[in-house]
Design brief:
disordered C terminus; three-stranded antiparallel beta sheet; single chain; TIM Barrel; six-stranded parallel beta sheet; 11 helices; alpha/beta
């Protein structure tokens, strides 16, 4: 997985050393179409620097497939110009800590945000809390400078080796004041804040919890179980498939001869036990957990942080 930024919390860094050949990408597109899917996404490294990404975008248009994907939006100009609403439903633009950008990268990000805005592409700005006291002033500046008024927030989660910077679920409660501070500032500036990874609502003060529970912007569960547990299925450059990018240690070889039911069965066998595992001791007594409306955290936390129960 290649990238042109070096974020300390990256969960995909060094996970794959090969590049998926273009013919394999096109084969996956055809397999996806044959299964009735209409949308495909790109993950792992930075999609816009994939050597064959212009050809991939052209193939999407020819096959009448659509896409959305996460990106740092620092790719080549010809790729940025090719991101058009006829193909791209939306972009999730990762805004890294300000000090991460080097050699004009920050200015390039702002320029490219304005470029895709003028091309009519919808985008949200993705921000990651990886420690207490993160400074997001530059993200608000980017929003004001480009007109994008949606933030997508996540608490960072562990990669397979647990050697990135992440927030252990035992530290979630300590992050709540920072989350509420960000939420308040977003409301003040008219910015829509969305949780892109689950944060347990039970950790928030009651008044905030009830208001957040009534809003679709703060879901306590993610999309991993949608489409019969295939919504986040991920094909790696080593041609192994996993239930999602956060569960790369649960894989099987991918083949165009397998069908969606086989893929769904493989994904379910890993996803459902993790969804059903309580994160905190009080989870079994919570009506949200009982109804599978709250999973507590990204499944990568449950998968890699050992025993699931915690006092929180």
């Amino acid at each position: 997985y290649q990238c042109n930024l070096q974020c300390p919390y990256c969960f995909a860094k060094d996970q794959e050393q090969t590049v998926l050949p273009l013919d394999k990408v096109l084969s996956v597109m055809d397999w996806t179409l044959a299964g009735g899917a209409k949308q495909i996404t790109f993950c792992g490294g930075e999609p816009t620097i994939y050597p064959h990404f212009p050809e991939v975008l052209k193939a999407l248009a020819e096959k009448k497939l659509r896409t959305y994907f996460a990106t740092n939006l620092l790719g080549p100009d010809k790729v940025i110009r090719a991101l058009l609403p006829e193909i791209v439903d939306s972009l999730i633009v990762h805004v890294a800590p300000r000090e991460t950008y080097q050699g004009g990268q920050w200015e390039r990000l702002l320029k490219n945000l304005k470029q895709v805005r003028d091309q009519g592409v919808q985008a949200g700005l993705r921000i990651n809390m990886f420690k207490p006291g993160c400074n997001f002033e530059h993200v608000f500046f980017a929003s004001q400078a480009t007109g994008f008024s949606e933030f997508q927030l996540a608490l960072t989660f562990p990669n397979p080796s647990r050697d990135n910077i992440f927030i252990p679920f035992s530290e979630f409660r300590k992050m709540i004041p920072d989350v509420l501070k960000l939420k308040q500032e977003c409301e003040t500036q008219g910015i829509k804040l969305i949780f892109s990874k689950p944060i347990p609502l039970c950790l928030f003060p009651e008044a905030d919890r009830l208001a957040m529970l009534a809003s679709p912007n703060y879901p306590p569960a993610c999309s991993v179980f949608e489409d019969n547990c295939t919504y986040n299925a991920c094909l790696s450059p080593s041609e192994n498939v996993s239930p999602c990018l956060g569960l790369l240690d649960h894989t099987r070889p991918w083949s165009s001869s397998q069908n969606w039911d086989e893929l769904a069965g493989f994904c379910r066998e890993r996803i459902m036990p993790l969804l059903d595992a309580p994160l905190f001791e009080h989870c079994p007594d919570c009506f949200l957990f009982e109804r599978r409306l709250c999973q507590g955290a990204c499944l990568a936390h449950k998968n890699r942080e050992g025993k699931f129960l915690s006092h929180g």
